Amino acid sequence: MGKENKAIITEASSTKKVILKLAWPVIAEQFLATITHIVDMMMVGRLGAAAVTAIGLTMQPVFFTAAFASALSVGTTALVSRFIGSDNNKDAALVLQQSILMSILFSIVAAILFYFSAPYLLAFMGGDAEVIELGSSYLRIMTPGFVFMVLAFIVTAALRGAGETKIPMKVNIVVNLLNIILNYLLIFGNFGFPELGVNGAALATTISRSFGGIVLLALSFSNYSVLKMNFKNFFKIKLTLIKRILRVGVPTALEESVRRMAQLLFVRIIAALGTTAYAAHQIAINAESISYMPGFGIAVAATTIVGQNIGANNFSGAEKGSYEAWKIGSLIMGFMALIFLIFPEFLIKLYTDNPDIIAMGALNLRIIAFSQLQMGTHFIFAGALRGAGDTKAVFYSTALSSWVFRLFLGYLLVHRFGLGLAGGWLAMVVDWSVRGSYVLIRFKKGKWKNIEV
C-alpha cells in the first residue's frame, strides 16, 4: 500500500491535514447519502403521512441488522488499521475476506426472517392497518438486496481502516445518484415507468444499494484496491482471525442491539402520540441527519488514525490526532447547532406543507440544537476508542444512556409530564450529553493504550 494512505501522526506531519484528508471523502459521501435520503423522504412525503410513517417504522427493525453488521465492520476496521499501521497488508486483506464470508451468511438469514415476519413487526411497532400494509410490502421488496447492502458496509469499513476513503466515496456517489433517479421514476411513474408509490422507493433502494455492493466486491479483487483479495482459497475459514474480529466487534453488536431496542421502544412511545406527531418526529430526524455527516466523517478519521498509529506503536500520535479531530468536529457541530436554531422551519418545509407537522418538527430541531457539541464529542471519541479496540467502553455508555435517559426519561417527559413530542426530544439531548461525557472521560484515562486486538 502506498504511503499516501497512511495516517501516521509524527512531529513533522500536519495533524489537521491528515484528519481532513481522511475525513473529507467520508463527509462528501455522507452528504450525498443524506441528500439522497432527504430527497427520498420528500418524494415519499408527497404520498401522505401514512407513507412516511410506514417507511419510518419499517426501518427500525431493519436497523437491528446493523448490530451484527457493526460488529463485523468495527472489528474489521480495528484490525485492518493495525495491520496497515504495521505494514502487514496481507493480513489486512485476510481480515476483509473473513468478514465478507460472515456478512454473506448473516444477511441471507436476516433477509429470510424479515420477509416472513414483516407484518408482525409492523404491528408490534404500533402501525395501523394502512401502515402495516405499506410497510410490509416495502420491507419485503428490500430483503433480496440485504446481502449486497451488508457486503458494501463491510468493504467500506475495511477500506476506511486502511486509510482509503476515496473508493467508497466514488462508488457511493454513483449509488446515491442512481437511487434518486430511480425514486423519481418509480415512485411517481415518470417517463412511462410504473407508478409504484412506497414500493417504488423500496425497489429504488434495493437496486441502487445492490449495485454498490457488487461494485465494491469486484474492486476488492482488483489492483485498484489497497486490500486486494485473492480468488484462491477465498472461501477458506480462518477461525483465529474470525475470533479476533469478533472479540473487538461483539461489544459493538451488543451496543447496537441495546441501542436499537431502546430506539425501537422509543419510537413506540412517539408513535402513540398519533400519525401526525410521528411524521413530525421522522421528518425532524431526517432533517437533523445533516449534522451527522461532518461528525461521522471526523469520527472515521479518528478511528483510522488511532488504529494505524497503535499498529505503528505511536501512541502519542494516536492521542494527538484524536484531540485535533475533536477540535475540528466541535467547530463544525457548533455551526450545525446554529442552523437548527435559526432555520428549523425552512428545513421542515422542504418535506411537507402540513402546518402542524412544520410547527412540531421545527421545535424538535431547536431542542436538538443544544446537543450538537455533545453528539460530536461522542462520535469522535467513540470512534477513537473503537480504533483502539476499546469497544466495551462505548457499549457501556450507550447501554446506560439510551435506556435510562432516552427511553425511561423520554417516557416520563412524553406521557407522565405531558410534554408530548418535545419531551422525547429533550430526553435525546440528555442522552447525547451523557454519552459524550462518558467517552471523553474514558479516552482521557488512557486505558485504551493497553488493549490487545
TrEMBL record:
One CC-aspect GO term: plasma membrane
Q: Where in the cell is it found?
A: Cell membrane
Q: Which residues cross the membrane?
A: 31-56, 62-80, 92-118, 138-159, 171-191, 211-227, 265-284, 290-310, 331-351, 357-381, 393-413, 419-441
BP term (GO), one: monoatomic ion transport
Q: Which Pfam families match?
A: MatE
InterPro entries in UniProt: MATE_fam, MATE_MdtK, MdtK-like
Q: How does it sit in the membrane?
A: Multi-pass membrane protein
- Example GO molecular function term? xenobiotic transmembrane transporter activity
What UniProt keywords are attached to this protein's entry? Antiport, Cell membrane, Ion transport, Membrane, Transmembrane, Transmembrane helix, Transport
Known role: Multidrug efflux pump.
The entry's family comment says:
Belongs to the multi antimicrobial extrusion (MATE) (TC 2.A.66.1) family.
Protein name, please? Probable multidrug resistance protein NorM
Species name for this entry? Halanaerobium hydrogeniformans
